[in-house]
Amino acid sequence: MEENLYTPRQILQKYIKACSGKIVNPLWKTLLLGVMAGAFVSIGAAASSVSMYGIENVGVARTVGGLVFPIGLMLIILIGGELFTSNCLLVMGVLDKRYSSLKMVKNLFLVFFSNLAGAVLIALLITYSGQFNFSDNALGAYVIKVAVTKSGIDPINAFISAILCNIIVCTAVFMAAGAKDMAGKILGIFFPIFVFVICGFEHCVANMYYISAGILASGNADYTAKAMELYGLAEKQISTLTITNMLIINLIPVTFGNMVGGMLFVGIPIYFLYREKKGGADMSSHKLHVPTFPVGKEKIS
User: Fold this and answer.
1) Which of 52, 86, 186, 300 registers the highest number of CB atoms within 10 A of its CB?
2) How far apart, in whole angstroms, are the C-alpha atoms of residue 216 and residue 15?
3) In this structure, is the dihedral angle defined by the CA atoms of residues 216, 217, 221 and 224, taken in order, positive or negative?
4) Residue 17 is inside which H or E element, if any?
5) What is the pLDDT of residue 279?
6) Is-contact 92 86, C-beta < 8 A?
């Protein structure tokens, strides 16, 4: 009976080939897939906010939110998308000499800003859908509170929390790549992402949505008044919700922490543990499932 999982060594070779495909994608496709991924993560984040805002106990609220949030990564894996945090695993292709580190950096740059565009787009759509009016503007107040909390986090704490976050996200992606059917991929994604949400770790793309939505909500006097009433927020705290603060105070340390977590703690160790030995003996007996999209030349200069 054929096993329903690839071995870690097989997953590595399969994923490196997929990474090569990401590198040779045309610009328009990379950007579109990046916008899709940012939108999918934001949809999961928005849904988790709706599930959490009425629950006072933090542990219970995060557990409920964790049941909902993984839908974002599921959509990316099963439909398509280029997500900055999981693309940190491109470092494995650099180590395997499939493409240069410069090409990896270019991909990460394009994906980061296209993820941001997708997140802001969803934040705009949800804001003007009227969803924040739920429970007499309580959801809008909650969105502001979340954004204020993230905008005020200590940069060192944000950096370390982001490392922990992307250790989990990248292992979830690697696990999903090891499954041969949809159910296996969903399970591989669900439990790690469930854990990262419960722990409250920092994810740069999710934060693109959370803080953007908070900035938009803070422009509504009814939402800000409710935030002051429910959460004791001061006007000065709410005024910190700006694009500049989002980028400098939160996204910069969180993004670099995500990169360290994904590359240094996951991609590099996995590569050296399971890489194909030169000479080919390790992998010659394995049948690999290779993505159908073109990957170009074996080495991309």
Assistant:
1) 86
2) 38
3) negative
4) helix 8-24
5) 53
6) no
Structure tokens at 83: 């997500």
Q: What is the pLDDT of residue 3?
A: 76
CB proximity list for 27: less than 8 A, separation 6 or greater: 110
Residue whose entry in the numeric block shows the structure tokens 């999918």: 40
Measured from the Cβ of residue 234, the count of other Cβ atoms closer than 10 Å reads 10
* Ranges of the chain with pLDDT below 70: 1-2, 278-301
From the CB of residue 236, how many other CB atoms can be counted at a distance below 10 Å? Answer: 7
Please report the pLDDT score of residue 277 as a whole number. Answer: 74
Q: What pLDDT digit, counting tens, does each position of 64-80 carry? A: 999 999 999 999 999 99
* Look-up of token digits 């998308």: 81
pTM across the whole model: 0.90
8-274: CATH topology is: Glycerol uptake facilitator protein (1.20.1080)
241: three-class secondary structure by DSSP: coil
The pair of structure tokens assigned to 22 is 């990401």
What confidence score (pLDDT) does residue 196 get? 96
158's tokens: 């944000």
